[in-house]
Amino acid sequence: MRNDLLEAVESVEASVISNQKIHERYAALSKTFEKLEKDSQHIIEVQKETIAALRALRGRDKQRIAELEGVLDTVHASLVAAPHSTELDGGLDKQNLAAASARIAKLEGVLDVVHASLVAAPHSAELQGGLDPIRKSLATTPLFSPPSNNSHHNPLEENDTPVTA
C-alpha cells in the first residue's frame, strides 16, 4: 500500500509539473498572440494611412494633370495659331517669322517643363524617396532639341524664297 501511495504522489507531482508546463506554454502563447494582435493592428493602421495617402496623391495627380492639360491646350492653340494664318495670306515677313519662331521656342520650353512635371510629379519623391534613373533621365531630357539659330522653325530658306511642298 505504501508503494501505491508513493506511485500516486509521484503521479500527482508529474501531473502538477505537466500542468505547470502547459500553463507556462499557454502564457507564452498568449503573450505572443497579444504581440501579433498589436502588430496586426499597427499594420492595418499603416495600410489605412497608405491608402489615404495614395488617394490624396491620386487626387492631386488628377488636379495637376487637368492643370497641365489646360496648359498643353493653350500651347497647342498658340502653336496652331502662331504662323499659319499669316502664311495662308501670302507668307510671313521676317519680323513676324522671328516673332513666331521666338514664340514657338518659348512654348517648347513650356512643353519641356510640363513633360518633366508629368514624369517626375509626385511619384518618386513622395513614394520612393527620389527619382529612379529612368524617371530622372526622362525628366531631364527635353522634348525638343534646342534650336540652332531657329532654322528648323523657319519656313523660309536663307534666300527668303518660300518653301514649296
TrEMBL record:
Polar residues bias locations: 138-153
Region (Disordered): 138-165
Stated name of the protein: Uncharacterized protein
Domain of life: Eukaryota
